[in-house]
Structure formats: structure tokens, C-alpha cells
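ok so I'm stuck.
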Amino acid sequence: MPWLVVFHLQRREVVAFVSTCLVCLTTNPVAGSLAQELDKTWDEIAIEWRKNDSGIEGVRASFAVRATRGALWTVLLDYSRFSEVFRNVRQASVLKESPAGAEVEFVVNAKIFDLHYVLDRRYLEFGRRITWKMISGDVRAVEGGWTIDDGSIPGLLKVTYESYVDVEWYVPVFAVRHSATGEVREMVRALRARLAETRDKCGLVAKDNE
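replied:
not stuck anymore, here's the structure
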């Protein structure tokens, strides 16, 4: 679709488009006061709007997940099931991959039309850091990353998600932030659900081996 057509679309459609671009995680029992702290930590999703080192506007979200580093890493690199975490991703195709990273082509339902781009995803440190940068695509720039740190409570990990997108045209900032906040919260919910599924499968395997 020519870019001039986009300017004539309804404002809410453009806002939804940009928010979609921005948002394209041990199972020991916890009791007593620690359980209350767990509930508080679990509910907190810190969302910050900022510019990255390249000067691109975007979002940084920090939240807790209940998982091992290995389990979370596996989910974040499972491109065949990417749409289960990022609901607007229609397809994620690995063009090439090595232990150091992967080039992945994405097709995203961006509300107005399907968006195509290829990301160079770097696996900087196993279980700790993933970054990405757009190689080619329908927008000017896409950058971001995952950072995985130890949580303040045993059994939890602190996860930081960053996404910065330059779509080449102006959209209302406050409207985009409101829409993208909802997308981030939905992504966190879906990621936690995928990790819970992984824990359940591991539990069944362990039970079968007893």
C-alpha cells in the first residue's frame, strides 16, 4: 500500500498500527509473607516510554516470570510458535540461524495492512540477552531486545523487553502509548501462559520417569 494512502486512514487505525509495531517470559512453593511479596511482584509490570541510543522512540517493559533461564530462552527462540506470544505476528520464518543468532522474516498484522520485515536477532549471552535490528522491511527502523536477570524472589526471573520503531510518519504520542500499553500487557500474559505450559510438560515427563 502506498504511504500516501495511510495518511487518509482514520486516526485510530494508524494508532493501532504503530502500537502493533512496538509490541511485534522453579517451581518451588512459596509461603507466608514471601507469598504476599510474590503476589505483589507478579502484578507489577513497569512500562517506560523512552528513546534508545539510536534516538528511536519506543517502549521498555520489565516484569517477572516463573521459569528457569533455559525454559524462557527456549520459548523466546521458538519462532514456530511466536504468534502465541505476539498475537499480531502472522508468521516468523527463520532465514538462517547459528549459535550466535538468526535472521528471521516476520509478517505482522498491523491493522491497516500486513507488515513485512527481516530482523537480525543476536544471541549475546545464553539465557541472558537477545537483541535485534531490522535488516530490511516496510518501516524505517526496528530495534529492541530481551534482558533476563535474576528475580528478587527465588523461582522468579526479571525480564526486560524493549521495542523501538520508526514508522516514518507522525502519530499522536499519547494515543499510541495507551494502545501499546494494552499490547504489552497482553504479551506478558501470553508469555507467562507459554511458560506455564512448559512447566506442566516438564512435570508430566518427570512423573512418567518416576
